[in-house]
Amino acid sequence: MATLLTWLGHNCWLIETPGARIILDPFLDDSPTAPVKSDAIQADYVLVSHGHFDHVADAAKIAVRNQATVVSNFEICEWLAGQGVSNCEQMNLGGSCRLPFGTVKLTLAHHSSVLPDGTYGGNPGGFLLTLADGRIYFACDTALFADMKLIGAAGLDLAVLPIGDRFTMGVDDSLEATRLLAPRRVAPAHYNTWPPIAQDAAGWARRVQSETSAEPLVLAPGEKINL
Ligand code: NI
Ligand code: MN
C-alpha cells in the first residue's frame, strides 16, 4: 500500500501510511471548508505545528478518542496533556523523532504560537516527514525564509506550502519557497478558508508550472493523492 494523503481543508491533512494514520493540524469542527467532522477521524498520531486555534482545535478530541499519540513541541504537548491526552512525543525545533511509520523532524517556522486560552505555545514549527516511500515537508504557518534551501537539500517528493497571505506567506513567496525547496511536487494549503486568505489556486498552479521546476498539485477539500 502506498502512502495516501487527503487534504481536509486549511492546513489539515490525513496521511495514511501502511503502518499508521497520521492527522496534521486537525481543524475540522469549526472549519468552513472541512469535508468531515473530527468524530469521523481515525488516527494513530496527531501532529500539531503551533498553538493557533486553526491548527490545534480538534487535537485533544481526536487524540483522546483514538488514544493517539500527539507529536508537537514541548509546550503544546504539555497543554494537551492537561486536556486528557496521555500519549505525547515532545519535540523542539531542529529535532527529529523516530516513530514506527518514519522520522518526524520539527522544522523552523517564522510565525507565532500562543494557544487559544493564552497559554504560551512555544515556537511554531513545520514538519519534515521521512516515510518508507518518500519525504514530505509541511511548511505549516510561516513566512518565507532562505533556510528552506536546507530543508529541501535531501530531496522532497512533496512540499505543502501556505499560499493564503496575510497570516503566512502568499503566492509570490510560495513560488520563491518552491524554488528554494526544489520538491518534485508542491501543494497549496492555508487558503480559501475565509475571505482574508482567499486565493486563486488555478492561477497559482499556472505560475508554479511556468516559474518553478515543481509539479503543482491543487486538491479540493476531501481529495486524496498518492505520495
Ligand atoms: Ni497560525
Ligand atoms: Mn493558521
What does this protein structure show overall?
It is a single chain. The chain is of the alpha/beta class. 21% of the residues lie in helices and 28% in strands. It has a single domain, classed as Ribonuclease Z/Hydroxyacylglutathione hydrolase-like (Metallo-beta-lactamase, Chain A, 4-Layer Sandwich). It has helices at 53-56, 59-66, 74-81, 148-152, 171-181, 201-211; strands at residues 4-7, 13-16, 21-24, 45-47, 69-73, 87-91, 96-99, 102-108, 125-131, 134-138, 158-162, 185-189, 215-216, 224-226. The strands form 2 sheets. A 7-stranded mixed sheet has the order 6-5-4-3-2-1-14, with helices on one face. A 7-stranded mixed sheet has the order 7-8-9-10-11-12-13. A hairpin with a 4-residue loop joins β2 and β3 (21-24). The longest helix is centred in the last third of the chain and has 11 residues, at 171-181. It is globular, with a radius of gyration of 16 Å. The termini are close together. 50% of the residues are buried. It binds nickel (II) ion and manganese (II) ion. Nickel (II) ion binds next to loops. Manganese (II) ion is lined by residues 52, 54-55, 141, 167, 190.
Helical content stands at 10-25%
What summary fits the major beta sheet? 7 strands, mixed
Distance between the termini: 11 Å
Shape: globular
Regarding CATH, which class?
Alpha Beta
Please tally the β strands and state the result: 14
SSE ordering:
EEEEHHEHEEEEEHEHEHEE
**Domain unit count:** 1
Question: The CATH topology, please?
Answer: Metallo-beta-lactamase, Chain A
Find the structural class using helix and strand composition.
alpha/beta
Mean pLDDT: 97
